[in-house]
Amino acid sequence: MAENPQTPALRARPLSPFTTIYKWPITMATSITHRLTGIAISVGMILLAWWLIAVASGPEMYQPLVAFVANPVGEVVLFGFLWSLVYHLFNGIRHLAWDLGYGFAVSTANKTGVLVIALSVIVAAAVFGYGWWLLHGGPRP
Amino acid sequence: MSLETPLHRVQGLGPAHSGVGHFWRQRVTAVALIPLSIWLVIAVLGLVGTTEAEVAGFFQRPWNAILMGLFVVVACIHMSLGLQVVIDDYVHSPGQRIFLLLLNRAFAWVIAAACLIALLRITI
């Protein structure tokens, strides 16, 4: 019987590309982050409702909310909510520009993606830092 | 020969059952939320470290109550539309999908109702 003329494969042949082995382009990261921050803001709306209900219910109902926000877990949640809101706002403006037909070139989309990420972190950190300063040693006692 | 009924053709919606209403509403609420969310962040910053009575006093000023009410309503519509897309994209079993779509609607209504009733109790 004749030998198989085809030499056996020396290395594993590539399969269909999986998301796990793709190098993530910046636009893919900003897109999924837009979705995740949208979900995070939705959860944050519970916090907003809690705040308004607590204000409507008087001091004894307001105290637990103040205690939650003052504790490290609450601070992380609040910063996450704030950053999600700022990111979703900036990236949402990017999406609206695309809807109007602007900024679709790959190089432009990559640049605005980096810009949105950087700006969202800077603005969220600045706002949170200012709030922190107001609470601890700002103009109010 | 088309099997499409004249009514279906004139509605122009094809097999998707709905038109561009979802897309359009998502964009309109997005634009409205740009100033509203910036206002909310500034408003909350101004209320850092205040008592619940001071927060109530803030919302008792008409413009603040109006803007807060608008934010809640527009944000809940935008939230419901956005979460619907996530469910449509990732949940394929029809039963689970319909259940989650209804839950999504209910969540938006509950948040909106809770915020608005609290706002009414603060302001009236």
Could you walk me through the main structural features you see in this protein, from its secondary elements to its overall organization?
The complex is a heterodimer of chains A (141) and B (124). Chain A is mostly helical and 141 residues long. Helix content of chain A is 72%, strand content 0%. Chain A has four helices and no strands. Chain A has helices at 26-57, 59-70, 72-99, 106-135. The longest helix of chain A has 32 residues, at 26-57. Chain A is elongated, with a radius of gyration of 24 Å. The model of chain A has no long low-confidence stretch (mean pLDDT 89). Chain B is mainly alpha-helical and 124 residues long. Chain B has a single domain, classed as 3 helical TM bundles of succinate and fumarate reductases. In chain B, helix 2 (21-46) packs across helix 4 and helix 4 (62-90) packs antiparallel against helix 5. The longest helix of chain B is centred in the last third of the chain and has 30 residues, at 94-123. Chain B starts with 5 loop residues before the first helix and ends with a helix. At the A-B interface, helix 1, helix 2, helix 3 and helix 4 of A face helix 2, helix 3, helix 4 and helix 5 of B.
CATH superfamily of chain B: Fumarate reductase/succinate dehydrogenase, transmembrane subunit
Proper CATH architecture of chain A: Up-down Bundle
Oligomer: heterodimer
- Poorly predicted sequence stretches spanning 5 or more consecutive residues of chain B: none
Give average pLDDT of chain A, whole number. Answer: 89
Q: How many distinct folded domains of chain A? A: 1
